[in-house]
TrEMBL record:
Domain Insertion element IS402-like: 21-93
PANTHER family: BLL5188 PROTEIN, TIS1421-TRANSPOSASE PROTEIN A
Superkingdom assignment: Bacteria
Organism: Dankookia rubra
Protein name, entry field: Transposase
Cited InterPro entries: IS402-like_dom (IPR025161), Transposase_6_like (IPR052909)
Amino acid sequence: MPHPPPPPGRRYTPKRPWSPMTDAEWAEVLPHLRTVVMGEGRPLRDARQRIDGMFQVAVSGLPWHSLPEDYGKPDTVSRHFRRLAHAGLWLRLVGACANPAAPPALRRIEYFICRAARRAMRILGMDGARAVQRVGLLTALPVWPIYLPHAAALALVRGAVGAWLAGFRGRLLPEGPTRELRRSLRLIRFLEGKPWHRRWAPP
């Protein structure tokens, strides 16, 4: 299905098949990685290989366990991806790509970066989606912009559902309806910007 026309000042990034980063492309990513993770000058062990692996999973859309062993253990790489998401790397790179003065080497991997940011949305929630929407790289959004919910309306719905559930606290209910309602409340919290899993929440 084709994308709807982007709003003025925003754009979709053309698709590009995954390939390992070149030296020039890695040179554009490395300063951002150093800034958000460990400060300038500290060595990064296997960082380029891990970022390449993250880009491969993000572009392919496959689960982490499909990652080739050359890029490290899938569990380790996925944990590193989540830490980088919380540290702000993917949103920082999206912002750098949106800059009209972005270097050509960074523009060449813009699709990889957008796909990584899109995968990180399940961790960052609506706060991340709104940040991406502000800079205008729509490929990094988990849905088309017209489907992004209004945060204030979601807060009202969440409050109503939460109050309804509170009225049944301590009472026996069939497992099915209660479980579905709690899942709906969890989805609403996610759309408001809360992490989907507690273990993904920032410390």
